[in-house]
Design a protein that fits this description.
Blueprint lengths: L2 H43 L4 H14 L15 H5 L4 H4 L1 H5 L4 H28 L4 H17 L1 H8 L4 H18 L2 H12 L3 H16 L2 H23 L25 H11 L1 H10 L1 H8 L10 H16 L4 H4 L7 H19 L4 H17 L5 H11 L2 H13 L5 E4 L13 E3 L5 E3 L5 E5 L9 H11 L4 E6 L2 E6 L7 E3 L5
Parallel strand pairs: 1-2, 1-4
Antiparallel strand pairs: 3-7, 4-6, 5-6
Helix pairs in contact: 1-6, 1-7, 6-7, 6-9, 6-18, 7-18, 7-19, 8-20, 9-10, 9-11, 11-12, 11-16, 13-14, 16-18, 18-19
């Protein structure tokens, strides 16, 4: 090689890092714009249900100065007791700047795009540390970008309301990268962000600690610290009874019990699992197919890497052992799996390629298979997710829901169908309708909003509409495009309203 060629190659080697990073910034910047557009359409179509509702209620009330808001949607307790998701308080500062609930969706979009970008940067850091030459590095970067952008789990996460898992995963990936790079002090800033996102976020931090311990002596001590912080935080949450909304009761079957003690539930579950390991094995075996659907778009071989093992395994086991299958079927609950498992996949493939002759050839084949998996398969097809989510509430129905919002006074109590309750949840008292349900009457005006076509309990809304009109004598104020709105002024002394049972 000539001296000029050598100098040219050295210059290109210096420039490739910034070029690949710039490519990532452009791709995820455009992705963020697309995510925002997608979320904005969903918001104006009013495809927002109870999960968005519970966060929107707390975010709005805190932003209005009610610093100890009640969750009337799920728990009937102060919001902090549901899962100690303290991050909602600093997020409520955004309400002062722009007091519209769509902000929560935009924050989630930023967290999802940011997670992808940080994971991509971490992979580039790894390729540089391994001294991977230009063409393999560029090829890996292209595949990683494609997989991160088109992974169907991302779109399933975005179209289903707002969840803390996206926020906590963003902090978790930042923390993991800084631990790996040796930036320990900054890493603990991100760890604090993870813990502020609640119980499940602390569980994912256990996974990061396991990875750091397994990765070697350079990160082992920090891994032990992470494990201690996560377990200590979970213990603290349990002791103060701040896990009323964590779904811990769904693990009671592992202990042979129907219920769990309020302040020691986590300890009882862990003890039950250790005492009856066959229950754990049986339950995980039943859900192997769902694990496969979840992880195949980001590569299964990543589990053989320390950094691709800890978080994915802890998250999948936690969700897989939940009695409710939705916890493994809904991608948002397992969002932390995607960046870490993809990172692990790259680490495994690079390790194989550098240790075996012609090792890059099978790695290229596996990378192409991974790209095809992400494009064509997964939990569900990502373009289908987008189309289904947008069409789930037709434009005409969305327009009528917006009219219903305009007709509903800000302080009126609202009882509504579950699938459209999100936009009505920026008030102190909102409840989702269910047959045979009893609801407190807190305000002088109650609005009933029904959307029978999209109610989770199909057909129940029709009976409720008849009951509200004929028995409560509520005044109908809107009936169009399948949306029904009634206004009711409860008689003096009425403290509750009860719907008839189904059927």
């Amino acid at each position: 090689m000539s001296l000029r060629a050598a100098r040219s190659e050295t210059t290109w080697e210096r420039r490739r890092g910034p070029l690949l990073r710039l490519a990532g910034i452009v791709v995820f910047g455009l992705s963020f714009v697309g995510f925002v557009a997608f979320s904005t359409v969903l918001y104006h179509r009013d495809f927002l249900a109870e999960d968005f509702g519970t966060y929107n209620q707390a975010w709005t009330l805190i932003g209005q100065g009610h610093l100890n808001p009640y969750d009337t949607i799920f728990t009937g307790f102060p919001f902090w007791k549901a899962d100690l998701e303290l991050i909602i308080w600093p997020l409520a500062l955004l309400h002062i700047v722009y007091p519209h609930p769509i902000v929560l969706l935009w924050v989630q979009d930023a967290a999802v795009a940011g997670t992808g970008l940080v994971a991509y940067f971490w992979i580039l850091d790894y390729l540089e540390r391994r001294k991977v030459s230009w063409w393999p590095a560029a090829g890996a970067a292209v595949v990683v970008l494609a997989v991160l952008v088109v992974n169907p789990g991302v779109y399933q996460t975005l179209f289903f309301d707002f969840h803390m898992e996206t926020i906590s995963t963003f902090f978790l990936v930042l923390a993991g990268r800084d631990v790996w790079l040796g930036r320990h002090r900054r890493a603990w800033i991100w760890v604090a962000g993870v813990l502020l996102c609640g119980t499940f976020a602390a569980v994912t931090l256990i996974g990061l600690g396991i990875s750091a311990v397994l990765a070697g002596k350079d990160t082992r001590r920090q891994g032990l610290y992470l494990l201690g912080a996560a377990v200590g935080w979970l213990f603290f949450i349990s002791v103060i009874g701040a896990n009323a909304g964590s779904g811990l009761a769904s693990y009671a079957y592992l202990t042979g019990r129907a219920t769990l003690p309020a302040n020691a539930g986590i300890a009882v579950v862990v003890t039950g699992m250790l005492s009856h390991p066959s229950r754990v094995v049986h339950e995980l075996h039943l859900k192997l197919h769902y694990f496969w659907l979840l992880i195949k778009p980001v590569g299964v071989v990543g589990l053989a890497s320390a950094w691709g093992f800890g978080v994915p395994v802890v998250v999948m086991v936690t969700n897989g052992l939940n009695f409710n299958y939705e916890f493994i079927l809904q991608a948002f609950q397992s969002f932390a799996v995607f960046p870490f498992l993809l990172l692990g996949t790259v680490m495994v493939l690079v390790w194989l390629a550098q240790r075996f002759r012609f090792g890059w050839l099978p790695c290229v084949v596996l990378a192409l298979v991974l790209t095809v998996q992400a494009l064509a398969y997964g939990i569900t097809n990502s373009p289908g997710n987008i189309r289904w989510a947008i069409d789930n509430v037709p434009a005409a129905a969305g327009a009528q829901i917006r009219k219903a919002l305009a007709l509903t006074p800000p302080q009126a109590e609202v009882i509504t169908s579950t699938g459209i309750m999100g936009r009505f949840s920026d008030r102190p008292h909102i409840y989702f309708f269910s047959p045979n349900g009893t609801y407190p009457v807190n305000d002088s005006e109650v609005e009933f909003v029904f959307d029978p076509a999209r109610e989770q309990a199909a057909g129940y809304d029709d009976a409720a509409i008849a009951y509200v009109g004929s028995q409560l004598h509520a005044r109908p104020v809107l009936e169009a495009a399948g949306i029904y709105v009634f206004q009711w002024h409860p008689p003096a002394g009425v403290k509750s309203v009860r719907f008839p049972p189904a059927g």
